[in-house]
Amino acid sequence: MPVRVYVIDDHEIVRRGLLSVLEIVPGIEVVGDAPNGRVALDEFLPSPRPPADVVLMDLVMPVCDGISASRELRKRFPDLRILVLSSFGDLRYVRPALELGVSGYLLKDAPPETVVEAVRAVFDGRLYLDQRVSAALSAAEKSTPVDGLTRREREVLRLVARGLSSQDIADVLVLSERTTRTHISHLLTKFGMRSRIQLALWAHTNGFDADAPTG
Questions:
Q1: Is the model's pLDDT at 136 over the cut of 90?
Q2: Rg, the chain, Cα only
């Protein structure tokens, strides 16, 4: 089955450019596009299932911006993959998007092959960040000591960094989902963090996903 992609961007030339790139990629099917979040929401929300697997989302748009649209889409379709493609790499834009649970963040000067790579990565359930965004996040985060982590907690942290769900982590490590959730809860306590997204971002930007176990 092809990856179904929907593009939301208020600049027609950008939107058409993305469509022309994606439409010729094997394994990707462009199912629609919209000039702002409101048009997209009107198409998505009445459906029992999302018409796309991955949404390419601009952030700054008239009528309904990318943050508002992403919030509504995530609320209605928690498993929908949203890949932000924005001109702005400032953390004032990046953090609110990631805190909503979007699956990736790219800058608009990314080459076409990177956009395709990111689409496939987020479809597979992985977090995908532009290298410059990742570097900015890493520089902004305070270093957190990890010496006190157990071997199992390190394994869980590496898989959290890759964006895996609790059930997926349990499957890889041959644990129950309840045990996995307990490990994640302990990690949040040890790192002094409030959310799993915050933990995943820290782990990802600090390279914990580089040698994650794969089962």
A1: no
A2: 18
Based on the number of CB atoms within 10 Å of its own CB, is 84 exposed (0-12), middle (13-18) or buried (19 or more)?
A: buried
pLDDT score at 200: 85
Instruction: Report yes or no: 15 and 33 within 8 Å, Cβ to Cβ.
Output: yes
Euclidean distance between CA atoms 105 and 59, whole angstroms: 10
Distance CA 84, CA 7 (A): 10
Report how far residue 84's alpha carbon sits from residue 213's, in angstroms, rounded to the nearest whole number.
27
Arithmetic mean of pLDDT, 36-47: 96
The Cβ-side half-sphere exposure at 152, using a 13 Å CA radius, reads 12
Q: What is the pLDDT of residue 91?
A: 84
- Which architecture, in CATH terms, is 151-205? Orthogonal Bundle (1.10)
Domain spans of the chain, in order of start: 3-139, 151-205
Q: Which amino acid is at 207?
A: G
Query: Binning pLDDT at 50, 70 and 90, where does residue 44 land?
Result: very high
Q: pTM for the full model? A: 0.70
Cα–Cα distance measured from residue 206 to residue 26, given in angstroms and rounded to the nearest whole number: 33
Average pLDDT for 129-141? 80
Q: Which CATH architecture has domain 3-139?
A: 3-Layer(aba) Sandwich (3.40)
pLDDT in the model for residue 204: 80
CA distance 187 to 192: 8
- In 162-195, alpha helices (H): 166-173, 177-191
